[in-house]
Design a protein that fits this description.
The structure holds 2 protein chains of 2 kinds. Chain A is an all-alpha fold. Chain A contains 11 helices and no strands. Chain B has 8 helices and 15 strands. Classes of the chains: A mainly alpha, B alpha/beta. At the A-B interface, helix 6 and helix 7 of A face strand 7 of B.
Chain lengths: 224, 291
């Protein structure tokens, strides 16, 4: 029973870490595109990114499940290449990335939109390329947005329930994460175990947020 | 020698206009772009810097082509030897004063010269500070120092002093003048401040509605009749009052308010907020020594 708990918690944080990492890689270019691009269909892309905020998780989960099934075009293509996303850990990662996308993109997007264009231009006039400007000037300037995005995406993935239940099910060691485990334990009237999961999530979430706020306060100090 | 001969379609607050800029800037010269806001001064500066692209024409600096619409040459700002000082300073907020300057340095020699530059802009003691802990004048000096690190062929100053209070403005004008004579870098300044323009520039290019109307010395521009034995002052019209049969005009000259009487015919060309030259015969002035 005890090792079941450890396995589930490890799986939960593994899922959240991988999801957050992927989201960070997608989120920075996507947010830059949404802030700096002038193409006409931008609001459509913006809407798609924000959809998971209002869409019931079961809706996204349902469509993902249909897409992953070997009967669909995507699913059969994936099956041919030996990838099985339905009821697997990889499937959970895909679902989580989609579902937590706005939580990573929005903070970065709002931080980027506040970066004065003149500091980017100043960097160009000092001979620095677009990439060097991004890495050395823009990203350090929006670090608070990046930290918010990382924390929100991580916490949101840890707390995710509906999408995971739809596409992952409840396979111990493969797709059974903490939030599902709590539901499962309560259903079998195993309150002690449910408490153990719930309290751990509560403590970990509190600790992460506390750390972020403390760090943010320190780095806002100015003089160094 | 810098040759500019370009056109650019502009959308201004007063409507669209086709700007045509023809200009030659001599080596080591301090040239001011003077004119009302919306005339295209800043745009010309940004076109030279490569931050905006002309519709057609040529920009050539010391024989090197920066822009040529016929040969389809358009160097990006990174490849142009410029130092740009922005109106809002545009300092990198996460870097200290020294790091802001070091960021600009490309060669080991330029890195070594950073300390010398910090000395020149009197910021050695504040080198470790972050920009948001500095005053406006200090920030402006950092921006100026950073623009000079790479020894640019042309220094572009976009209303660098407009956000400062008058005393700090004067001090920085003096410093700017000193730095220009020390380093001899060709400098282009955007300004609509008369005293700043007279004090700093060798020549002035008067820009109106996207055209360069006139290029001359600041004195020729602001005081065209200085040899006629008259005392001339430039003032801003504050109030025009009809008091039949005359008109009383109130002007702000420097920091003092002056009232003068005109005929209604003479006053008809004046408008409140506009500028006028007050001219008086200088052979019989009343001079009272101050205690």
């Amino acid at each position: 029973m005890e090792s079941d708990f450890v396995t589930t918690m490890l799986l939960t944080f593994k899922l959240a870490s991988i999801t957050t990492g992927i989201l960070l890689l997608i989120g920075i270019p996507l947010a830059s595109f949404l802030v700096f691009s002038k193409i006409r269909f931008k609001s459509i892309i913006e809407t798609i990114v924000s959809m998971p905020l209002v869409l019931p998780p079961s809706v996204l989960g349902f469509y993902l499940l249909l897409a992953f099934s070997p009967a669909s075009a995507i699913g059969s293509f994936l099956t041919e290449h030996g990838i099985r996303l339905a009821f697997s850990f990889e499937g959970l990662v895909v679902g989580s990335v989609l579902f937590s996308l706005p939580f990573m993109v929005h903070p970065i997007q709002s931080a980027l939109s506040q970066v004065p264009l003149s500091i980017i231009e100043a960097s160009y006039t000092l001979g620095k390329s677009k990439i060097e400007t991004m890495v050395k000037v823009v990203l350090p300037t929006i670090r608070h947005g990046l930290i918010s995005g990382i924390v929100l995406a991580f916490a949101h993935t840890v707390g995710e329930f509906g999408v995971i239940l739809m596409i992952g099910g409840n396979i111990p060691g493969e797709t059974r994460v903490a939030s599902i485990a709590i539901y499962d334990e309560v259903e079998s009237l195993n309150y002690a175990m449910a408490h153990q999961y719930a309290l751990t999530l509560f403590a970990v979430t509190f600790a992460i947020l506390l750390l972020v706020y403390t760090l943010n306060k320190k780095s806002l100090g100015g003089i160094r | 020698m810098i040759t500019v001969n370009i056109t650019k379609h502009l959308d201004t607050a007063e409507g669209a206009l086709n700007a045509v800029f023809e200009l030659e800037i001599h080596d080591g010269e301090f040239l001011t772009l003077f004119g009302p806001s919306g005339a295209g001064k800043t745009t010309l500066m940004r076109l030279i810097a490569g931050l905006e692209t002309p519709d057609s024409g040529l920009i050539e600096v010391d024989g090197e082509v920066w822009f040529d619409s016929h040969k389809k040459i358009n160097l990006p700002p990174q490849k142009r030897s410029i130092g740009f000082v922005f109106q809002d300073y545009a300092l990198f907020p996460t870097m200290s004063v020294r790091e802001n300057l070091l960021f600009a340095a490309e060669t080991a020699q330029q890195r070594r010269n950073v300390d010398e530059l910090l000395e020149l802009i009197e910021l050695t003691n504040l080198a470790h500070r972050l920009p948001n802990t500095l005053s406006g004048g200090q920030k402006q000096r950092v921006a100026l120092g950073r623009a000079l690190v790479r020894h640019p062929k042309i220094l572009l100053l976009d209303e660098p002093l407009s956000a400062l209070d008058p005393s700090m403005r004067q001090k920085l004008q003096d410093e700017l003048s000193l730095i220009h004579s020390r380093l001899g870098v060709t400098t282009l300044l955007v300004s609509h401040d008369i005293s700043e323009t007279v004090k700093l520039s060798d020549r002035l290019a008067a820009i109106e509605l996207g055209r360069i109307k006139r290029i001359c010395t600041p004195m020729e521009f602001f005081s065209p009749h200085t040899l006629s034995g008259k005392l001339q002052l430039i003032g801003e019209v504050l109030k025009i009052e009809e008091d039949y049969p005359v008109v009383i005009v109130t002007l702000l000259v420097g920091s003092s308010v002056v009232r003068t009487v005109l005929s209604s015919g003479e006053a008809s060309e004046l408008s409140v907020g506009g500028h006028a030259i007050i001219s008086t015969k200088a052979f019989n002035p009343i001079l009272i020594p101050l205690p």
